[in-house]
Amino acid sequence: MTKDFLVQQIREKKSYLCVGLDTDLTLIPKHLQHLPNAIVTFNKAIIDATKDYCVSYKINTAFYESLGIKGWEAMEETLHYIPNTHFKIADAKRGDIGNTSLRYAKTFFETLPFDAVTVAPYMGEDSIRPFLEYENKFTIVLGLTSNKGANDFELLKTGDTFLYEKVLSTVATWGTPNNLMFVAGATQASEFKNIRSIIPDYFMLIPGVGFQGGSLSEVSKNAMNKEVGILVNASRAIIYAGSNDLYAEDAKLIAMEYQTEMSSYLV
Amino acid sequence: MTKDFLVQQIREKKSYLCVGLDTDLTLIPKHLQHLPNAIVTFNKAIIDATKDYCVSYKINTAFYESLGIKGWEAMEETLHYIPNTHFKIADAKRGDIGNTSLRYAKTFFETLPFDAVTVAPYMGEDSIRPFLEYENKFTIVLGLTSNKGANDFELLKTGDTFLYEKVLSTVATWGTPNNLMFVAGATQASEFKNIRSIIPDYFMLIPGVGFQGGSLSEVSKNAMNKEVGILVNASRAIIYAGSNDLYAEDAKLIAMEYQTEMSSYLV
B48: closest CA among B27, B16, B78, B9? Predict the structure, then answer.
């Protein structure tokens, strides 16, 4: 997918919502849990219910890998079910020496037809470059994350700047807004203006709106750019909105709420 | 596996060699490439040939993931073939918010019976804690890596120390030598004395001896502690030592060379 197509989808749907498919067999409705294909059945219903209100789906690979081969099969089947109008993110947090990152890029951009993959920056340029070589694919590098542990290293000072600021400004020189985005955590809404000033033209993937806290209004106000430039993710708040037969309907209602609020921030 | 058992194996075999199974279908001998189970056939032959000279195998997950489900099947079959006397490392470089790291820990410590998994530190304490909860399992956190990209962030100054030094000293307080190790890259041999002084009691997993450069003699001299405290990995230098019918025999010879040299550094 190209950035222009993504922006067009956002404008048409008046939504920059990404739905996170962090699907856990023990958290889906009880009446589905016994099905042989429970996770895929659940995911398909969630996708059907929410696709009109979101522009992206994010598959958290850990939830699928933890089930072994059956999990990878479920991930594949889910991925192929997502409409091609939607930006498909593998939330995989990969990154290794160049020779190995090359294989991770192949995993998520060739073997699995994702549009984007999240990548950890610790190992530096040659760990990120192989992902950037793919045309119309996006590498989403961790900048500031929304968890408590962000304080341990991301918010260390390196000279005059925080480590995460240095990561943003450095990695931004390795790609363009057409192949690179950044993860920017939503619990530090006050930081968004600053982040936007460091990476004015890049899309941000913003997790942490929903059960992790964070205000959609503040995030939108401070992080948007002229191409919208943000995808806001909600996972548990949407997919586990309901716990009985009406789970898909409940997920739809929450996704609609997000979309309605988002439409009011889009000019 | 416990640390004591690992140390005992090292003493008995006079080897601290880890063989990296970075198996690439296009690099294994031509006469195997057409087999339906080529990677597993190759890996089993390599394991049979090298197991007397090494104490550990490291499976680089990227090489298997990039083949999709067939790759995960090959990883599983390879893993189950490794003798239980050998320390089994998933070189996966995982790490995410706690709720997600929990699933990665489950992937590599329950679904797949690895003894250890490599983890990236960028996201801080709650991204690492879930791995440390497992008894007799090891979290191997990236400290200093052996690639050029280490200069981008790992070697940034944070106050008086490099970022990687801060990672070592901070993460060391979250675990013990019985559940935590560190990756320490072998191309910066001069740094090993310093690293050892920061983490005197922890095992280091040292990649980069072999095709990535690095001197086994220098590494051993500077990085060992009283419990040996190092695992030195070689991947391509061993598994691709030969390219014809004798590939396993050639791998054995190189593994033997490593073991012979290592035995001379063990007192």
Answer: B78
Complex ipTM over 0.85: yes
Which residue from A minimizes the CA distance to B167? A153
CB A21 within 8 A of CB A43: yes
What are the tokens at B84?
A: 């239980």
A170 by Cβ neighbours in 10 Å (0-12 / 13-18 / 19+) ranks as middle
Active site residues per annotation of B: 93
Q: Which residue has the tokens 């040292």?
A: B206
In chain A, residues with a C-beta closer than 8 Å to the C-beta of B145 are 97, 122-123
C-beta atoms of A22 and B100 within 8 A:
yes
The CA-based dihedral angle spanning residues B128, B131, B132, B135, taken in that order and rounded to the nearest 10 degrees: 180
Phi, psi of A56 (to 5 degrees): -155, 150
Measured distance CA(B32)–CA(B25) in Å, rounded: 9
Question: What CATH code is carried by the domain that includes residue A123?
Answer: 3.20.20.70
Instruction: Confirm or reject contact between B124 and chain A (CB < 8 A).
Output: yes
| Chain B residues near residue A106 by CB distance under 8 angstroms | 66
Number of structural domains found in chain A:
1
Whether residue B127 and residue A149 make contact (CB cut-off 8 A), yes or no, is yes
Residue-range definition of the domain harbouring residue B89: 3-265
Give B27-86 pLDDT, tens digit per residue. 999 999 999 999 999 999 999 999 999 999 999 999 999 999 999 999 999 999 999 999
| C-alpha to C-alpha distance for A79 and A91, rounded to whole angstroms | 12
B232: β partners: B17, B206
Query: One-letter amino acid identity for B248?
Result: A
3-state SS, residue A22: coil
